[in-house]
Structure prediction request, 303 residues.
Amino acid sequence: MELRQLLTFRMVATTLSFSRTAQTLNYVQSSVTAQMQALEEELGVRLFDRLGKRIALTDAGKRFLPYAEKILTLSDEARLAVTDGTVPSGTLTISAPETLCIYRLPRLLRQFHDRFPQVKLIFKPEPFGDMKRMVSDGVIDVAFIIDEPQRSTALVIEPLVADPLLILVSADHRLVQLPVVQAKDFDGEPLLLTEAGCSYRILFERALNEQGVHPTTNLEFSSVEAIKQCVMASMGIAFLPAITVEHEIAQGRMVALHWPDHLFQVQTQVLWHKEKWLSPALDAFLSVTREVMGEQAMAPVRV
Prediction:
């Protein structure tokens, strides 16, 4: 089993394409195919199903992927440990939910790349529930979450920015006329919800349930941007971080309702494994993260 085979396997597992993997790694496609066949022969299992022109990871391939990630990470750490560690280099694998990918991380990633171009960043957007497990398993180096304050015995979890949450409707919604709303006002209203397991969906549903309100019509979306479009189309009520709707509220296309009994807030947090070696690259990334997020914390969202 060779490191180059594992690198190629990881790229094929990411792209699900031999041709795109060949282009990315500067191989001819036959070399990618040969490497994967050799790896499968050595392991004695099929890692990929060939479905015509498409490929998919087999169950064995899915089980093998986190181990390949760990081996490649250890390889990077070993190389850095015996070379000049003063200049950050190597690879960092980062994950975050869609909300943070769009509204908090672009400036951070740009600044880090400008300062440390020798560090390769691999970005993997993941569902809320998967990220802590992936950090614990060593599949990713750093994850960002937006949630209530978290604790862990295995992970370092550092709060960065407080994120208020808002109850949102279209500008012509009937509830806009009310100076304050109560839980009973949401009875019969369609809710436009983020995916199951999303931290702020859990907060909102818990608050409604505590007040005895159980909406019968819920629409679930995997995309915050899709929810925003549906709110503006008067399809229902949403519950989202203020940072995601700042511009729409300023433009009068969306209104935040005032529910004085419940003032909701979550935090943007960064996490990594507490036993993970802080390589120069990871240490630099965390430093830039604190700097950029600190600036964002000093510039509260206007809603």
